[in-house]
Design goal:
alpha+beta, Arc Repressor Mutant, subunit A, 4 helices, globular
Length: 148
């Protein structure tokens, strides 16, 4: 199956987008039923950390830690797909959608997550593993997920 690269890969001057615009169909976003989404009111716990999805909070030892919106979305995305490595292109497409971003944006967001959750600290351990030139994976064990 052939797929087009995401718009973030095209030059910003519009020269290429005009040439391919007629062949790319306009697709309306498909909204999944609410029941198909993971529980957004969930409290995800690992080590001394807790991620409250609905209120968009990250807590370590019960104390809130600041985390910007995009890194928070990235953390939730990695947790929800923790059974596999997510490639950098997948993550850029999912978190930044069709925005043009600097190459280091994803790495900077991962760094902010690691700082917020205390990645590598005692009682927390490694939270996100980097697979060089491939992507990232959430590797901490979630509470209630030990049998996985």
């Amino acid at each position: 199956m052939f797929s087009f690269p995401s718009p973030r890969h095209f030059p910003d001057d519009g020269s290429l987008s005009l040439a391919i615009a007629p062949i790319i169909p306009v697709v309306a976003p498909v909204l999944a039923p609410a029941a198909a989404e993971p529980a957004r009111s969930a409290r995800l716990r690992f080590g001394r950390c807790e991620v409250r999805i609905a209120s968009r909070e990250v807590l370590v030892d019960g104390q809130p830690r600041p985390l910007q919106p995009r890194p928070f979305d990235l953390l939730v995305c990695l947790i929800e797909s923790r059974d596999r490595v997510r490639t950098t292109d997948e993550l850029l497409d999912e978190i930044w959608r069709h925005e043009m971003v600097q190459p280091g944006s994803l790495a900077a967001a991962v760094m902010r997550i690691r700082q917020a959750v205390g990645d590598g600290e005692d009682g927390i351990g490694q939270v996100i593993r980097t697979y060089p030139r491939v992507g990232y994976r959430f590797v901490a064990v979630l509470e209630g997920d030990e049998a996985r």
